[in-house]
Design brief:
The longest helix is centred in the last third of the chain and has 74 residues. This protein is of the alpha+beta class and 337 residues long. 20% of the residues are buried.
Length: 337
């Protein structure tokens, strides 16, 4: 218990000495130990790397999740270690509304049929966008965030310790200077100036040793920050590749949609035909659907079903199969493959 009290008193004394030393430095009444040019350059490089990585990461997150409210929600879910909500993207919401409008206007009309087709492709674009976001997070955002949470936090911690050691060192240097100035004067409080100088020089040697050791540790970590850029470069290449694939898939889908719409416009009969390519076509549920009666089929989000045919009594529904279960599902809940 006595040891703990002494330790607390010593730490409090060190904290006061650091505060006094820092105040005197700011007032210009005390000198400070300067780091060598190499260390200062490494420290500046580390600060630049940290600041730009944070800014790039924020900008990337804004691109991948444009809605600020969603970003805040995702951040809170991460902090409480809960799974992020599986929300639809803006493209998928647009697609759902287009399909619903097309079914309301009538799939047999040119406009209604076109709305349904465009809506289905908007949903496909939404799926491609979701895949791109997942890939970009994995190859770019997550590594950058780990770098900030691990390497940079360690560097910041060790630099803070180094600054404390520097303040301790400079405080010891000041005590030595003051003790030397007291030489030849009478003893104060029973302590001779010679003994006070000897004690101050001993503390200075200890402080210098601790400062040198901490500076070496910090310098090694700062050099590691510089080498981390090679890893960030690889992540950047992977991000560009994921983005390139994303836009290529989007372009391919839009070309298909253009050709499909042009074909429908040139062939009026085609515009009133079924959206289904053939019996046995696969479709994925965009969200949960609960059957309203025994003729319908319940599905969960992302569940894949086999489409058997369109319902003859209601063109807004399709007959589907899921394992041994059969029933009809509204088209607007499905993404046809």
């Amino acid at each position: 218990m006595d040891f703990n009290v002494k330790k607390l008193v010593r730490e409090a004394g060190n904290a006061i000495s650091r505060y006094v030393q820092l105040t005197e430095e700011k007032l210009g009444t005390s000198d400070r130990t300067e780091f060598d040019v190499l260390f200062e350059n490494l420290a500046e490089l580390s600060d630049n790397t940290k600041n730009w990585t944070e800014k790039i990461l924020r900008d990337t997150e804004a691109v991948l999740t444009p809605n600020p409210g969603n970003r805040v929600e995702d951040y809170l879910f991460e902090k409480i270690d809960k799974k992020k909500p599986n929300r639809l993207s803006n493209l998928e919401y647009l697609g759902l509304d287009m399909i619903e409008a097309g079914n309301d206007f009538g799939p047999g009309t040119s406009y209604g049929n076109a709305l349904i087709k465009v809506g289905q492709y908007e949903q496909k674009l939404g799926v491609v966008e979701r895949e791109f976001i997942a890939a970009a997070n994995q190859c770019f955002s997550t590594p950058l965030q780990k770098f900030l949470d691990n390497e940079m936090k360690t560097v910041s911690k060790e630099r803070s310790i180094l600054e404390s050691k520097r303040l301790d060192l400079d405080a010891c240097k000041n005590r030595v200077r003051k003790a030397r100035g007291m030489l030849g004067m009478p003893a104060k409080d029973g302590v001779s100036p010679e003994y006070a100088l000897e004690e101050a020089e001993r503390d200075l040697r200890v402080a210098q040793s601790e400062f040198d050791r901490q500076q070496e540790i910090t310098k090694l970590l700062l050099e590691g920050v510089s080498s981390s850029r090679a890893g960030h470069l690889r992540c950047l290449h992977e991000f560009v590749e994921a983005q390139s694939n994303y836009y290529a898939k989007c372009h391919e889908l839009m070309k298909e949609l253009q050709q499909d719409l042009q074909s429908s416009s040139s062939n009026p009969q085609h515009s009133s035909t079924s959206n289904l390519q053939s019996s046995g076509q696969k479709a994925k549920a965009l969200c949960d659907y609960e059957a309203k009666d025994s003729t319908e089929l319940s599905v969960s989000a992302d569940e894949v079903v086999t489409v058997l045919s369109e319902c003859s009594d209601n063109p807004d529904y399709v007959n589907c199969e899921k394992g041994t279960q059969h029933g009809r599902i509204p088209k607007m809940y499905l993404l046809f493959k």
